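Cross-posted from the bioinformatics board.
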Amino acid sequence: MNETKALEIACPLPLNDHRHIKLAHGGGGRMMQQLIEDVFVAAFDNPVLRGGHDGAVLEFPHGRSVLTTDSYVVRPLFFPGGDIGALAVNGTVNDLTMCGAEPLFLTASFILEEGLETEKLWRVVKSMRSAADAAGVSIVTGDTKVVERGHGDGMYINTSGVGRINHDTRVGPKRIAAGDVILVSGDIGRHGMAVMGEREGLAFTTPIESDCMPLWSTVHAMLSAGIDIHCMRDATRGGLCAVLNELARGSSLQFDVDERDIPISESVRGACEVLGLDATHVACEGRFVAIVPRGDEERALYVLKSQNESASMIGRVLDGEPGLVTIRTPIGGRRILDMPAGELLPRIC
Amino acid sequence: MKHVDEYRDPHAAQKLAQAIRKVVTQRWTIMEVCGGQTHAIVRFGIQDLLPDSVELVHGPGCPVCVTPLEMIDKALEIATRDDVIFCSFGDMVRVPGSRADLLGARARGADVRIVYTPLDAVRIAADNRDKQVVFFAVGFETTGPANAMAVHMAKTQGLRNFSALVSQALVPPAIEAIMSAPDTRVQGFLAAGHVCTVMGTHAYAPLAAKYGVPIVVTGFEPLDILQGLYRCVLQLEQRRAQVENQYERAVCEAGNTAAQALLERVFRVVTRKWRGIGEIGESGWALTPEYEAFDAEKRFGLADAEVSEPEICISGLVLQGLKKPADCPAFGKQCAPDHPLGATMVSGEGACAAYYRYRRKRAA
Amino acid sequence: MCLATPGQIISIEGDDALSRRGQVRFGEAVRDACLAFVPEAKEGNYVLVHAGVAIAVLREDAAARALDLLGQIE
């Protein structure tokens, strides 16, 4: 594709003038126009965006549609296996996906910190385009603001997304029923460890790559296979543990999972042992929990495994204590898996 | 993971639990001294496997929990200075002092950094010569070598901008304090394996003899703990009171002599205060004259201040095994991991936090 | 106290007793650790690492014996 080729070259802004983002890049004048044309339109290039209006005029298919929005703040901006741009696209794409919608269009708003290297912005924007292509969505409108130096971590991104639902499966916590089977779409905790690993002093020699990826193709495959997904939710901050707790509360049922069935890579596991972290608390950016009726679980697992070999059936929904998540430990004990409290901190004791 | 997975085998765990049920004929109260073991007990649901007649009480072996309020206040005083980068282990930053905690100080602009190893704090000092870099050197004997190494490296590298706020505690005097309390309920101990890895086991024989308690040096994996309990119960049933070493793969009688050599050079034994318990003679370490130029308390000229714990909090009694977390009127109400009153609710291995997280309601 | 994790030494550097360091593998995660206090440790050995510092070389014979004992429990 022409676009792909164009994206491989260096940042198109004339670097001698614009090595760093200046306040004027958000000032509404010529510099801002140049930034929009040379960076954002160049990278996201599509007919709607090229229209250059204040908003995107969309040809929208019939049926139910889904609208979602999310803001992305991450330090560092680049981490093994991804960056804030990939995160901003995949995060919103996955929010649409978890509602059962096929993602179609995204908006992208940037809050840039004065002094940000333009080259970094270009790398992020390129990464957004690649992620959007991989997820099959177009970035159709956006906005840019520049804040004074010291008032942002380089950049923040907000993306909103619209998608359509073209199937009859109703997906949501209220459909979860006792007897349902809980599955997870792949090994957990990579994203959180990738980001934590980049922070000072916590780096491992072998970098753990983020699991940041779009989930629509996996969910589409499940829906196409006729699996009656009762509920799905992607595991982001708070990890698998938070999702299980949210859904147990949302459905007023008890969830019971088996720790031995939770897929964790040996690198994440080793890092968690060293830092004293519970892998179920560690963030993911490309994993989801699917809850399916009994009888559908084998087919669901088959479809999930065809997309990610480490997908696993991890537990069941019980008609027990509402909102409680219990976990069977490797030695056959049982404990409560409670919501993670606050910031994830490595411990030595 | 080798040396980990073998000790998490469910069949062996069931067999050990069965063996304990077979030998036990009466009620026994056993204290696991170490917070790391408390953590493993709740994380793996070990209590579920035990007969009701074996009662576990959780000891004071959590360096975060026993660090006195005054020390945390000192840490906050240092951390909020403009010229300071304050480095701490992650578990220490959420522990409330008498007014605030280090995370709160960071939110208000203090440069508080979480490090995995004290040696990173030394590196930060080398990279930031224009700043005072202070490391909060909390720990029991296990963390002593790492903390001593940091101070020693700073001295060797001539890093005058590095100092350590030392809050080192020692296990044997704590065991002695618990056993000499007139109302003690503890009949046997699981001694902390990693403390013994460093210090060896010789300090425990006099304690076992003096108080007639079995002491089993125990590791941290579920099978280690179950085996430690089995050996402790067996001794109790046979009316023996000896020191046994369950954790032979990591503990020998003499301990780690290379580490002890540096510990002796860097630290001297002092009386210290334990949060919730009070003063215990010869139960801590401070820097020796050779290294006292790196003592943050001296460098910043901090004075001791008397502060008191919230009245309702019973963390001191919990730490001594006299009360269970659920006996506290504030437990799960005014006091929870998000808004802790006492240190046992803050640290992940604090008995109250562990109970809150894993055993708040009995699993169905 | 004190979370210490067993890992395998995959390389060692530094000759001076107090500056010995090495790469240690935990599962598939590799990290640098101080080896000053385990002068006897060799590549391939498992060490117990606490706060970035190795505090013991794990004794394989003792581990095997302990596992044997566990196997014999009736």
